[in-house]
Amino acid sequence: MQITFICGRQHECRLIRDLLATPPGAALLLHGEPGAGRSTLLAYAHQHADDRTVLSAAGLADEAELPYAGLQRLLDPVRDHAVDLPERQRRVLRRVLTGDGCGDGDRLTLTVAVLGLLARAARERPLLCTMDDLDTGDVPTARLLAFVARRLRPLPVTLLLTADDGSLVAGIPSRRLSPLDETASRALLATRRPGPPPEPVLATLASIGGGNPQALVDLADALTPGQWLGREPLPGTPPPDGDLGRAYRAMLDRLPADTRRVLLLTALAADVGSGVLARAARAAGTAVEALAPAEAAGLVRTGPYGDVTFPRPLARAMVEATAPAADRRAAHLLLAAACGAPGQRLRRALHRAAATDAPDPGLAAELVAVATEGGHSVDTAAALARAAELTDDPASAAERRVAAAGHAWAVGRTGQARALLRALPDPPAGTGVGGPVTPRDAALGGRSALLRGEMLLRCAAPSAAPPVLLAAADALAATDRATALLALLRAGEAVCYSGEQYRYAEVARHPVAARRDADGPEAELLTTLVAGIAATLRGEHLRGGPLLRRAVVLGGRSGVAMTPSALTGAVAAGLLVAVDAAAHRLADRAVELARSTGEVCLLPRALELRAMSEYWLGRHDAAADSCREGLLLARSTDQHASAEVHLGLLAVLAAVRADRDAGLRYVAEIGDSAPPDSRPYALAQWALSVLDLVAGRYADAADRLTSLARPGTGRGQVMVQVMATPHLVEAAACAGRPAQAHAALAVFDRWVGSTASSSRRALSARCHALLAPRGSAEAEELFRAALRMHPADVATFERARTELLFGRELRRRRRPRDARAHLHRARQAFVLLGAETWSEQATAELRAAGESVGVPQRPAERLLTGQQLRIARLVAEGATNREIAGRMFLSTRTVDHHLRNVFHRLGVRSRTELTRALGGAPPQYSTYS
């Protein structure tokens, strides 16, 4: 294995260094799938052996039938030391090392002889013995070394073994080499050539490699310069002639022929079910039971109902890739014949297509017919892509490729979608696929441009997306108004994401944006939304507000079918006019609809908008959950731009809760990749400014927030700055910069005046109170007005912040008795919300107001959610996490997550303390005047 740089194996390297640094007499087994880096780690051990004598060997498949062949190669350099052994041990050892074998009665003697030989060889210098691929070589050597490994303690000998299966050697420490994470995978890929590849190439290769180091190396080394730079389609699997392919081929060659035959059928069968696999195996003259040797080798796992799975991510791909082409074709035909049920038409057609080499228009038409019967799925994308390959008409082939790319993008296969679009021919200027430009060519170009633009927006370069998306709207305007409007909506999203709101006027002026009498509800929603956003960005809130509220109403109509894209547009409209509850309902609908239709690509955006509505509703925990789910989906679908937005929102949510470590961690994950005017950059700056505000760095906080946008120019993140205005005003007021605060508040008030949101009006009143003359009746009345307008059932956090600021104001006006009531309410709310830093600030203000404040006795019923409380009570009854998971129909991981939050909120560290907390006295706050 030619891996020269170890990435993602820091823990294993530390284990090896510790093993070599311990007193003599230690052993370690490293095990994992082929290509996991076992040989590389042995080489690392050799490099760090220092003054040790190194003995090394590897198990060879060619010698698997030769007893003790591996032992002979390992001990050959020190066999001269056998002269010091007792006669019988020397005789048995010599007989084994010269190939005469070892009788059953001499096996213990042989083991003792090997231990003695190692001890004598280590008299001058300690030994490091390594045996790679222990399970590939002969079994007697493996058994003997396992026996020796358990008896090394008194000897100055370190034994390091590697194997595919961790159960091969029992009784010694072992370490499984798990797949590399994405960061380590990318780092390894970046070391293979000068200059790392573009981000989409890195992401695709990391996904194909499945965290297997050798797969990643083979992929990187096999790519052409065009593939490495993202100009040519990437392969779908590691190369079969690479080191990993050779390792799998050697492993497969050791299996019986029937096992290999059924294993290939299993690899190609995908999700057709155990019945299809059994029928195909019978047709091949064998049975599923022939997989037993493959299961023993760890390649497959058989379930209780006959289902067969590949526990290793790459095993299925490598079994298929390393099989001869003729064998693959025969296996596909067997599987096609076995797919006889009505629901298996698509799988049957796909298997037939996989066994076909030449163009076949009839089969291509069948693939299209069965693919269009279902919704978005991986199989649908594969069927349409294969249909394009089998189509001899260039125009039809191009249409099918674009359709396949659309389905691939919808289900989150971004790399596949890009590859399909790259495969489209480039027609000469002024012509289409088959000659002069026709409406069919224009529609095809428009749909492909829409896909390219969406991928630029979500994945790579949002600032480059608007012209592509506007061109798509132009091309589709005459033939597909609904899709043209979607392209226009995406163009508007792109200019807003990039901080180039001045370009939204171009979007709004596009002919497609004009409302038509014949428009249906969805088209009316989108045209109304574009007009409303354009007016709002111009500052014309009295014009834009009614249009946006109309879009919300259209999106919320019952009985009217809407796409997830249209619903997310309605959510954005709801957020712009501050109808948070309606926006949240629409966002929930968008998320559920995207899931039910299989449009995974839309989920990150829908979850982003849901998180924003939850933020304004004061549901910070729910907003963070939405962001974490959106971040996971964005990363899994290569939507890097969307992932950065979720990181930015998570940073803001952490900062608002004064969780400095988490906030800085999320900002660091965004790093320098977000351009200065982009939404992720603005969110990161918002988060940092809130942390500055918490720490008392008021001028820094105000400067950060002021720089987010440049009002009047249409540049920067105007809406993010407006959302952050309460923090900007507070920071500027505390820094003694009233002009800076008044300028921001004027923009905020114009927006708030166009809404009917009591929570936004409360924030406006709080801001004005902070800017009113200190100690004035005006300030007090504005604080009281803010408290009256804060909704009682939502935004509890913001109400508590207002109580804290009002209490602080009253204390500074030397009215401590009046201040204490507000500060107590603030402190209690922060404790219930788990906002410890804010609770500490309220506590400090109470003490400054002359009150000695004790530690609150927090009531579990008020601190915990309903589900958390039920889990806590089950723990108090003595239930284990697994029992709780079973009773509540949850995963144990979910129970663990909730229980950690329970411990944190109740301030306990053990189940015993939790039980005591639940059985304590009624909650109260201990205070002394």
Arithmetic mean pLDDT: 87
The low-confidence parts are 920-929
The helicity comes to 55-70%
Strand order in space, largest sheet = 2-3-4-1-5
Q: What's the assembly state of these chains?
A: single chain
Q: In percent terms, what proportion of residues is strand?
A: under 5%
The CATH architecture name of the domain at 10-176 reads 3-Layer(aba) Sandwich
Please state the overall shape, judged from the principal axes of the Cα atoms. globular
Structural class: mainly alpha
CATH topology of the domain at 10-176: Rossmann fold
Number of helices, where a helix is a run of at least 4 consecutive DSSP H or I residues:
48
Rounded Rg: 34 Å
Report the span from N to C terminus.
74 Å
**How would you sum up the major sheet?**
5 strands, parallel
Count of beta strands? 11
Query: At the fourth CATH level, what is the homologous superfamily of the domain at 10-176?
Result: P-loop containing nucleotide triphosphate hydrolases
**CATH first level of the domain at 10-176:** Alpha Beta
Tell me what the structure shows.
The model is unreliable at 920-929 (pLDDT under 50). The chain has 48 helices and eleven strands. A hairpin with a 4-residue loop joins strand 8 and strand 9 (715-716). The strands form four sheets. Strands 2-3-4-1-5 form a five-stranded parallel beta sheet, with helices on both faces. It has a two-stranded antiparallel ribbon with strand order 6-7. It is mainly α and 929 residues long. The termini are far apart. Helices cover 62% and strands 4% of the residues.
